[in-house]
Design a protein that fits this description.
With about 700 residues, this protein is α+β, with helices and mostly antiparallel strands. About 35% of the residues lie in helices and about 15% in strands. It has a five-stranded antiparallel beta sheet with strand order 7-6-14-13-12, with helices on both faces. A five-stranded mixed beta sheet has the order 16-22-21-18-19, with no helix packed on it. A hairpin with a 5-residue loop joins strand 1 and strand 2. The longest helix has 26 residues, at about 1-25. The radius of gyration is 36 Å and the shape is elongated.
Length: about 700
């Protein structure tokens, strides 16, 4: 008897000593440390500007394992999980002696395992170091690992590991992946029924998968709801209401928005877990729904692209690179937002803007739409007909080719490209060719993203803004001169905002322009309000012709639908700036009533070189520049005709140095009557009297 007592005491002492030595060495990580580094392999995530999930990528092993923390899930779920799995989680140090005693007693009493004694810490140990069998040695290892994990991690960190790695059947791991797959939402807000199902599934994930065995999933959820500890957490009557809720019988696809941009984000930083973009999830989803709907109506092999940007910040808020990323027949893998194509007539507004800025025309100026020969270049209208005499306003709204080329010839194609460079856009010219008149009709290459960047300046009162790439390139306002002066921008926007919407589309208060490239290869539409600019391209990625596809008939309906489905309220276009007035034709100066070119290639109303005439302000005009409030603004001055350089005088005093431009500014000393005079290089003068209010 004494021998057995000595053996028992000696064995116990040996175990105690061995345990003390082991845990002393474990404290220094010198022997058999837990493989916590194995917990790092999680899915890469692409997020929108607000942190919402746009797209997740499976781990190299094909698992959907989204990083999840306690802060990411519903607090009610956490209370139910702990109540069901490990009531004394916050009290024990890895193992629960009371649970072990209860499980042992039930085994002896019932002859079978009634309830387990695994703590959440032990389950985490099994998840990060899985073993095929359920032997006694495996259970002992779990116990050791659980104690080791508790010594190294906080309780919250242990819960984070469980929430990330808990199995939910198939290749789903973690609460977030399961919630997205079965409920289509993040687990931040869960119903009692949803929380109970997520608590129940990890125990036998394959047997209880709702999409494979609905009855088993319902029974498992019921057991969770009937547990007394859970009932105390969820409140009286909640279990009965939760049991009456249907269990989802199908598994949904995890979010897969912004395919092209997400791929680009992953390529840019392949080792990062989170990739934040400038996209807005709600807008992106709306644009993709628009693209999907439009693609069903398009012919085979046709693709489309959409870009939406904030004109004030330059941030891309929505982007669709193709009709369907996985549609090989449409070359869906090609991101058509970044491919250079012919822009058709979409550059015409900038030609008109330059003409307005230089004082060559006003909206009601008459311009000829008749056959013309520009040194061998003979532009023709899209429908092969001519309108004769039209106003500049009508010419832009109808997108007539000959008037646009007439104005481009007057303002100079090279000067137009200089303005594009101010906005950070460099269209691609044909090889070994200088800027020519064909630019006005699409004779350059430009990407949809760059086209949106140009139009963003129109929405931003002429101030250029750099459009980012949605991931790495920083957007923002650009330093330097404006793309166009505010009055010229207002004239362009005023005209484009009155273009009739496509058939069936509601009037949304946007300014928009369409374009069709030569041979029906590209259909474009770009529109903007006072805040956002949106561009649409439709065509074949292989640059094949698409007879009958036009900007107005094909791309414009998509533009209006995309604006509607973006769920953004229309922001009114900017108010007219100081000096912006739309004169009736009868009130125009003689020099602006009709636009023509003289024998020297200069704008003129006759065959002789014209003397200077002040176009703005007109004689006797009352101009509100804030004189009454004491906060004066400068007055825009414009002239037509004459020979540069020009000398401006206000009340007999020279304004500044000689200028070769036909526009200038004058800051008055105060309100009242003033006389403005301009003198050209030949000594010819023109004067007007104005009242500053």
């Amino acid at each position: 008897m004494r021998l057995w007592r000595k053996l028992t005491i000696g064995t116990a002492a040996g175990f105690i000593l061995a345990g003390a030595v082991f845990f002393a060495l474990d404290a220094a990580d010198r022997v058999f440390p837990p493989p916590l580094e194995m917990t790092g392999a999680v899915s890469a995530e692409v997020l929108d500007a607000d942190g919402q999930l746009l797209r997740a990528f499976a781990t190299p092993q094909g698992r959907w394992r989204l990083k999840t923390t306690v802060a990411d899930v519903d607090p009610q779920f956490m209370r139910m999980l702990i109540a069901y799995e490990d009531r004394r989680f916050y009290e024990h140090h890895g193992i629960d002696p009371l649970a072990i005693g209860r499980a042992g007693l039930q085994l002896v009493t019932n002859g079978r395992i009634v309830s387990g004694a695994s703590t959440l810490s032990m389950q985490v140990a099994r998840l990060i170091e899985p073993r095929a069998g359920r032997s006694l040695s495996a259970k002992i290892l779990q116990v050791i690992r659980a104690v080791q994990i508790e010594r190294r991690l906080s309780k919250e960190e242990i819960l984070d590991l469980y929430l990330t790695h808990a199995p939910y059947g198939g290749n789903l791991e973690g609460v977030r992946a399961a919630s997205l797959a079965y409920f289509g939402k993040e687990p931040k807000r869960l119903t009692v029924a949803q929380a109970a199902l997520l608590v129940a599934l990890p125990q036998l994930p394959e047997r209880r998968r709702p999409d494979k065995n609905l009855a088993a999933a319902e029974a498992a959820r019921k057991r969770v709801l009937e547990r007394s500890a859970v009932a105390e957490v969820i409140g009286e009557g909640e279990a009965e209401r939760a049991e009456a809720t249907l269990v989802p019988a199908t598994r949904m696809q995890l979010p897969a928005l912004a395919a092209h941009l997400a791929e680009a984000a992953l390529r840019s930083k392949p080792n990062e877990r989170e990739h934040r973009t400038t996209l807005k999830k709600q807008i992106q989803a709306g644009l993709e729904a628009t693209a999907k709907s439009a693609a069903m109506k398009l012919r085979p092999k046709l693709s489309l692209a959409i870009v939406m940007a904030d004109a004030r910040t330059g941030e891309i808020v929505g982007e669709v690179g193709s009709a369907d990323y996985f549609d090989a027949s449409r070359s869906g893998w090609i991101d058509m937002t970044r491919v250079s194509r012919s822009p058709g007539s979409t550059l015409k507004p900038f030609i008109y803007g330059l003409a307005f800025e230089q004082g060559l025309v006003s909206q009601e100026t008459i311009i000829e739409d008749r056959p013309a020969d520009f040194f061998g270049y003979r532009p023709r209208n899209f429908d092969m007909s001519y309108q004769g005499d039209v106003t500049v306003r009508e010419a832009l709204q109808l997108s007539l080719n000959v008037p646009a080329v007439r104005l481009l010839d007057a303002v100079n194609p090279a000067r137009l490209l200089v303005r594009f460079r101010r906005a950070g856009v460099r269209p691609i010219l044909p090889p070994n060719e200088a800027p020519g008149l064909a630019i006005g009709l699409g004779g350059v290459g430009i990407t949809l993203k760059d086209l949106v960047q140009l139009y963003a300046a129109l929405a931003n009162k002429g101030e250029p803004v750099r459009i980012g790439d949605g991931v790495t390139a920083k957007p923002g306002k650009m330093d330097g001169e404006p793309l166009l002066e505010p009055v010229a921008v207002w004239n362009v926007s005023d005209i484009l905002s009155s273009v009739i919407p496509p058939t069936g589309a509601p009037q949304r208060g946007i300014a928009y322009k369409t374009g069709t490239s030569y041979g029906y290869r590209d259909a474009w539409s770009v529109g903007y309000d006072g805040r956002y600019v949106l561009g649409v391209w439709v065509g074949r990625p292989d640059n094949g012709a698409v007879p009958g596809s036009t900007g107005y008939g094909t791309a414009a309906p998509i533009l209006f639908e995309a604006f509607a489905k973006s769920s953004i309220a229309t922001t009114p276009l900017p108010r007219p700036p100081s000096g912006a007035v739309r004169f009736a034709q009868a009130d125009l100066p003689v020099s602006q009533r009709r636009f023509s070119i003289n024998a020297n290639g200069l704008p003129s109303t006759s065959s002789r070189e014209q003397a200077p005439q002040i176009v703005y302000p007109p004689e006797g005009a009352h101009v509100d520049l804030g004189a009454r409030s004491g906060d004066l603004s400068p007055l825009m001055l414009k002239l037509h005709g004459g020979r540069a350089p020009f000398r401006w005088l206000a009340n007999g005093k020279p304004l500044s140095d000689l200028s070769r431009r036909r526009t200038n500014q004058w800051m008055p000393d105060g309100g009242g009557y003033s006389k403005l005079t301009v003198i050209d290089a030949m000594g010819r003068a023109a004067s007007v009297g104005v009242f500053i209010d």
